[in-house]
Specification:
about 220 residues, alpha/beta, Rossmann fold, 2 domains, five-stranded parallel beta sheet, binds nicotinamide-adenine-dinucleotide, NAD(P)-bd_dom_sf, Epimerase_deHydtase, NAD-dependent epimerase/dehydratase domain-containing protein
Amino acid sequence: MLNFARGRSQARPNRSMPIAVMEYADPKRKSNMFGKLLMAAALTALCIIMLKLSPSFSTPTHFSRHEKGVTHVLVTGGAGYIGSHAALRLLKESYRVTIVDNLSRGNIGAVKVLQELFPEPGKLQFIYADLGDPNAVDKIFSENAFDAVIHFAAVAYVGESTTDPLKYYHNITSNTLMVLKSMAAHGVGTLIYSSTCATYGEPEKMPITEETPQASCKTWINA
Ligand SMILES: NC(=O)c1ccc[n+]([C@@H]2O[C@H](COP(=O)([O-])OP(=O)(O)OC[C@H]3O[C@@H](n4cnc5c(N)ncnc54)[C@H](O)[C@@H]3O)[C@@H](O)[C@H]2O)c1
């Protein structure tokens, strides 16, 4: 036989006990809570710092946003001979200019002169980068709002192009495709491409026009 009486005879737990415990200000619990809050604040601060340091998080600059009435031109190879003169002309005509150059052949001195002539914020910035590096090119286009590109970055010696043609295919053909790909991805629709009149050799008739026949130097023409 089951003994029901035994169960009933046991003292019932005091139901009001948990409430009494909650109301009691436990200093250990309080300090636990404070520790948790402190930890949460520290983690939030850490996240903010990491976000700020991350390449995809950058404070907007003149160069990173389109501005009404201002045309922002990316001048590749702008530390070089033709590129630096083109940049000077653009700056004089109130364009916003970003020069990208790996300084393999160009001269940083030319960029410094331009920076001294046009020190106002949002006029000129120089980015040291190689157009053969897809991540660098993509980063440049992601972080800047270009309206147009003038593409001068190249290797441009006729003799060298025949002795080291792969260098020319790589730096001219392949790197130009990289620039075009980034332009398309970031909606930049205007390109001025600096070719070379060397492809025409020594023409019989001047001036050189689009109809002038190309000379027979194959590397120049192909690259
Ligand atoms: N010099 C001329 O008379 C002339 C005339 C017409 C057209 N062009 C053409 O204009 C272009 C530039 O000629 P230039 O005489 O100014 O040459 P340059 O060597 O003085 O300038 C080329 C610039 O491009 C940079 N560069 C090269 N490869 C790069 C890369 N992978 N990434 C980033 N920067 C890079 C170099 O450091 C250099 O500053 C060439 O395509 C050339 O054929 C030159």
